[in-house]
């Protein structure tokens, strides 16, 4: 029997529904819990957090679109994460955390033994939050760290904050996916990120969609992938002032690098599995569009298929 999932979107949750969710969490029958965009009372949010704290099966928790709406709820979530040991993926996209919220969550996030994927897009974060996030990207394998990080649509971060992140990315021993879409980065910050990508031994996907880049940035990335070895496999440059020709050149070179890596692996007598390239969709756009649809509920505790998008086993 596969662990189940509970997925509810954009609904006002009753006390009875919350009880069912909490019972399932305590019974360790839930691997994925998503209540994105749902409305629930502070009391009920606390009940859910206690269920998360007690669960040994929960691997993915989606609280996107304003579920964590106050500092009080942020503290309750932090307490739950300190007790939980199973969670691997946490979505908080569209939560008004601010830097103060990240300060509250930092202790739980940075010491969690299993967390590898974190979505903090559109959370109104600034430089202090980025400084704390950099601590979740350790430079050696002795400490567990994030494999996937989303910081989309956090325009309050300054050039200094992004520079700090670029340094952490360059030295991270585990980060594989970095989503920075819909931040006003510009060519200067993109240049810093290009240096970080060239230095990184692990980064495979970089999403810079809608970040105010021009052909100047694209040329830097083109020179990098053309002349230097890199782990990068996907670079998203859509919705920027970059010519389609430059984008295609970069994409072709990255694809060639992947093919060469596969051939090298076969030549050494080992099988290299095909790399799955994610179909990137701007979170800041799709979240609001999906929520615009009528609220929906999908609850199947026993036979639900576990979705692996944005999730690393």
UniProtKB/TrEMBL annotation:
Pfam families: LRR_6. SMART domains: LRR_RI. Keywords: Repeat. InterPro entries: Leu-rich_rpt, LRR-containing_regulator, LRR_dom_sf. It comes from Cyprinus carpio carpio. It comes from the Eukaryota. Residues 254-284 are annotated as: Disordered. Residues 265-278 have a biased composition (Basic and acidic residues). Residues 255-264 have a biased composition (Acidic residues). The keyword Nucleotide-binding does not apply. This is Leucine rich repeat containing 73.
